Request: fold
Amino acid sequence: MLILALMVVGAFSFSTLGLDLFPKIDLPTVVVTTDYPVRRRGDRTEITKRVEDAINTTSGIDSIASTSIEGTSTVVVQFSLDKSGDVAAQEVRDKVNRIIPDLPETTKTPVVQKMDPTRRR
Reply:
């Protein structure tokens, strides 16, 4: 009877156990996406390079990775874990806003987003 009681209590406890596939963490990762119409071949790397150069002066950066495809430039910036994701996103947003006048006229406004792995779509 004692073992049966322990099994019932264990089964009940297991069913009410809270388990999250993605625990609440704050990864300081920021993504900058810029859309633009393709006019000539060099536009792809020109826009990505300007965004990277502006962001590169931000403190606490671990790595910068960029992808340029037809009509879209994506720059992913990973910061060290001791930096707040909100602060990192605001600093990148400020740096990107400074270079908007230097981008080609047909370029849409860059979108700066803080990456949140716990957010469900």
Q: What stands out?
A: The mean pLDDT is 85.
